[in-house]
Amino acid sequence: MAAEEQERIPRNFITDIIDADLNSGRTSHVATRFPPEPNGYLHIGHAKSICLNFGLARDYGGTCNLRFDDTNPVKEDMEYIKSIERDVRWLGFQWQEPIRHSSDYFDKLYGYALELIDQGLAYVDELSPDEIRQYRGTLKEPGRNSPYRDRPVEENRALFEKMRAGGFAEGAACLRAKIDMASPFICMRDPVIYRVRFAHHAMTGDKWCIYPMYDFTHCISDAIEGITHSICTLEFQDNRRLYDWVLDHISIKSRPHQYEMSRLNLEYSLTSKRKLNLLVEKGIVDGWDDPRLTTISGLRRRGYTPASIREFCRRIGVTKQENTVEMSALESCVREDLNAHAPRAMAVLHPLKVVIENFGVEGVTETAFEVPNLPDHPEMGTRTITISKEIYIDEADFREEANKQYKRLKLGSEVRLRHGYIIKALSCDKDENGKVILVHAEAVPHSAGANVEGHKPKGVIHFVNAADCVSVPVNMFAPLFTDPNPGAAEDFLSVVNQNSKEVLMAKVEKSLADAKPGQAYQFEREGYFCADSKAFEQGKLEFNLTVALRENKKAGA
């Protein structure tokens, strides 16, 4: 199957709608958009939306806009804008130029607000924000009309212009749509559509001191851009009534249609930018790109590939049914991708020195072996593995005594060193606490990469040459939360896993000294790891665990 076919969006209710719209002539061109608010970094939930919106545009030969819904300058930052652009490109997508911003339409939005005022459908309210909440009512009780609701059109227009001129303090006045305070849908109870904010805007500077609310801006921006299929998550389902009301009562002709899907809920992760920001602010994580976070930048730094994230989003599909996806589904995708593309290397995470006592005798003189970087892929080339009298193996690969199921090195038994000799453990040295600190062994002559009659090692273990290996920190990660659904906890900070990161001082083969930022490897018998990009910025070499070789059944342990 061609790569293009493999990445096509699987059939779902939205593709059915698009097919029907194209067949009926409602539209002849598919136009979607990805509209993030630039108030944080993107996370795995945004990846689902990116893959869907850009993927639909690709599959139907349409267009997809990148539009920043930048209506709240208090929380927005140019850092977030640049990070979002970088993440979309890294995932493999390109937007229809130019990049859009809701702020591009501020003049038009102001004009549409005046249209509502002139029709008697919007009014300036001087209730405080707390009073507005009290007047709004509850799910069981209708709201109450504001005492300012029936102001004359001329007064509302003058007061709105006063708002724009900076004549009201923040919170002293706002513009509300006049809809229905008794509506069963709270979003229709005279929602605020403009508020006062004396804040510098990243795009418009200090031109404005009033800013439109998201719900007023979003639908108009879609209409201005001619979006045909406006896709969002289910929590915005009720808001569609407000969007339609706004578009029904202003002079714009275009009518985008909104469709809602379930959001992505992933085990042991958060998809709330507010909560993610709190983790960053409190120093619980090392920035928005901490490898323990499922932000796109965090996944990238951890070693996830664009292809693996796109495949994950393809597999989970698009439905209206809320569910929580197991972390193993995401891990499986990156494991499959890296297995096919990541070069192999040897690294000892818990080093234990072994002395090959007969190294240098007849038949035990080879000091280097040429091995493939990726088995079955000769185009990936080879590298040289070296060996000398002293090597390191992993502590878990040696036991003084063990049962028959133990396939690694134990006293009196033989194992094969990966790509190298068969060795037998002769004795071991211990420290004052009884911990083994050195193993004495001997190699079977002429056994380097060859079978020797009378010797049948039960297993293969990896090693590195003590003479030229490189000592590097390796960051091992466990889930950041002890609860698979941290967002549902009364206090999500109370379920932070205090042992989510462990730094090991490992010994790795010398070829890894030349690793490039973000470069992925399979550490044989251990897992997939990548060179940490942030460490490189500081002139250091570190590796991050991407994913273990096999699924961990106790992911939350």
TrEMBL record:
Keywords: Aminoacyl-tRNA synthetase, ATP-binding, Cytoplasm, Ligase, Nucleotide-binding, Protein biosynthesis. Gene3D superfamilies: Glutamyl-trna Synthetase, Domain 2, Glutamyl-tRNA Synthetase, Domain 3, HUPs, Ribosomal Protein L25, Chain P. The keyword Protein transport does not apply. One of its GO terms (biological process) is glutaminyl-tRNA aminoacylation. Its EC number is 6.1.1.18. It catalyses: tRNA(Gln) + L-glutamine + ATP = L-glutaminyl-tRNA(Gln) + AMP + diphosphate. Residues 460-532 form the tRNA synthetases class I (E and Q) anti-codon binding domain. Belongs to the class-I aminoacyl-tRNA synthetase family. This is Glutamine--tRNA ligase. It comes from Candidatus Anaerobiospirillum merdipullorum.
